[in-house]
Amino acid sequence: MPATIFAQDPSEAATTASGQKLRVAVAPMMSPSDTFASYFRLLQYLGSQLGMELEFVQRKTHAEVRELLHSNSIDMAFICSGPYALDTTDTGQNLLAMPVVQGESTYQSYVIVHASSQAKSLNDLSDKTFAFTDPDSNTGYLNPVFLLRQAGYAPESFFRSTIFTHSHDNSILAVARGLVDAAAVNSLVWDYSEARRPELTGKTKVLVKSGAFAIPPVVTSAGMDDSRRNKIRDILLHMHENPQGRAMLQELRIDRFVVPEDAWYANVRHMAAPSFSEGPAHGQALP
């Protein structure tokens, strides 16, 4: 079986950009150790099916993963919907596939609070401490900020203070431990944590649920040739038909992969548009 290499150095990834190793990044939706543990076997399977060595590249922020894609320093990435939608013109990335999770092709942003919180709505979080995940995150930043700005509020004045945790499980942990009053998190990560670590999510509760967004996609760099892109897509689309592949998908609560359309991410792109950097006058109700 081809070896899996855990790459940390951006310059190292860049020097192999034209080689026979497949460089794959996983966006920082979970902490580095949990991301590595969760995706290691899936990526091993992909490497074995391709007959290639594989470099597993991790970065702290979504912006760093986007830059690696734009510079063709990685071949493929499991990214957040936000970074995909933010690249509205010369993207440097191509849609490859999208997971269907527990029968759903959509997910939500959850605003969570501690289980003991008396908050009943987002309005009740005024002057509270709040955790975002990443400035490019759809569920962990774009959506909650959009809701606030639509109601005429800016995060920096609505909340007493805010932090960026750089992963959704870190945000869940921060609320559970009382380090912050509330956080915005990816529903898929919260549900995954509830299944695997109920003692942690049991210390939190969901205050607000957003509308539906297309699940974060898998993309390839613009520099990947079509034959390799098609081969990788074919492996992912049929992975659930292979007993070994299906077992690995089940570990991630993934049913199968499907081919997404760019239009599915239009609502995320809408929230990120510069025209929504300012909201209307104060007084619009918050959920």
From TrEMBL:
One GO term (biological process): transmembrane transport
Keyword Signal set for record: yes
NCBIfam families assigned to the protein according to its UniProt record, in alphabetical order: 3A0109s03R (TIGR01098)
Species of the source: Desulfovibrio intestinalis
Domain of life: Bacteria
Keyword presence, Signal: yes
Annotated keywords: Signal
Family to which this protein belongs: Belongs to the phosphate/phosphite/phosphonate binding protein family.
Pfam families membership: Phosphonate-bd
SUPFAM superfamilies, sorted: Periplasmic binding protein-like II
Name by which UniProt lists this protein: Phosphonate transport system substrate-binding protein
GO cellular component, one term: ATP-binding cassette (ABC) transporter complex
